[in-house]
């Protein structure tokens, strides 16, 4: 398999994963609705940063260690679940503390681009299922003549490019209705729904054996 055919074949597989609704999509969409386009794009870049790390790790075998070691995988799974539940609870609490969700001070409020990027990165890195996907897929697309680390990063960049196209469409669509969605009552509802979804993702991750 040549490098070009490897990249094209992986792009087809990654495209299917990109458009399936999941935690990354929910986080970017919520950020777009609450904080605006710039933080939402920062959140998408954060998710992409996490994907690059996972891609490099899968290429050099670090993800294989997580799969082989029950303790390491469980530790990452529990940490990721705890982070998601904490983030979800904080979002819901912020809607109960304030009638005006635009008041500063809570994780449910509009966030800066830097904070959105960091949360996006953590959300991706603390999800062992992302690592499991990269472990299962990337080694199949590593040509023998290509350096594994560079090829792993290249494949992750392909996935990132597709993800940014998808996230851009979501962000621009959300921006069109953001004025209505930023009403205090609607804003609270968005944070409560998103917070509940994050808690649900976290609990599912915590009890999932794989």
TrEMBL record:
Localisation per UniProt entry: Cell membrane
Source organism, top-level taxon: Bacteria
Keyword set, alphabetical order: Cell membrane, Membrane, Transmembrane, Transmembrane helix
Keyword Transmembrane: yes
Transmembrane segments: 6-29, 41-65, 71-89
InterPro entries registered for this protein in UniProt: LeuE-type (IPR001123)
GO terms assigned for molecular function: amino acid transmembrane transporter activity
Membrane topology, from the record: Multi-pass membrane protein
Gene Ontology CC terms: plasma membrane
Record protein name field: Putative threonine efflux protein
Naturally occurring in which organism (per UniProt): Cryptosporangium arvum DSM 44712
Lineage: Bacteria, Bacillati, Actinomycetota, Actinomycetes, Cryptosporangiales
């Amino acid at each position: 398999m040549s490098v070009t055919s490897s990249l094209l074949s992986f792009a087809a597989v990654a495209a299917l994963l990109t458009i399936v609704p999941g935690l990354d999509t929910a986080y970017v969409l919520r950020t777009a609705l609450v904080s605006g386009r710039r933080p939402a794009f920062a959140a998408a870049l954060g998710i992409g940063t996490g994907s690059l790390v996972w891609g490099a790790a899968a290429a050099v075998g670090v993800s294989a260690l997580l799969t082989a070691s029950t303790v390491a995988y469980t530790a990452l799974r529990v940490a990721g679940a705890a982070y998601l539940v904490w983030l979800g609870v904080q979002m819901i609490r912020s809607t109960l503390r304030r009638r005006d969700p635009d008041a500063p001070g809570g994780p449910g409020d509009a966030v800066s681009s830097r904070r959105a990027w960091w949360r996006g990165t953590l959300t991706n890195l603390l999800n062992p299922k992302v690592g499991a996907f990269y472990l299962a897929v990337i080694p199949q697309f590593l040509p023998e003549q290509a350096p594994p680390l560079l090829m792993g990063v290249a494949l992750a960049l392909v996935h990132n490019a597709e993800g940014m196209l998808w996230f851009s469409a979501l962000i621009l669509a959300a921006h069109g209705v953001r004025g209505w969605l930023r009403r205090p009552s609607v804003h609270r509802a968005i944070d409560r729904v998103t917070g509940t979804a994050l808690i649900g993702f976290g609990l599912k991750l915590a009890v999932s054996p794989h």
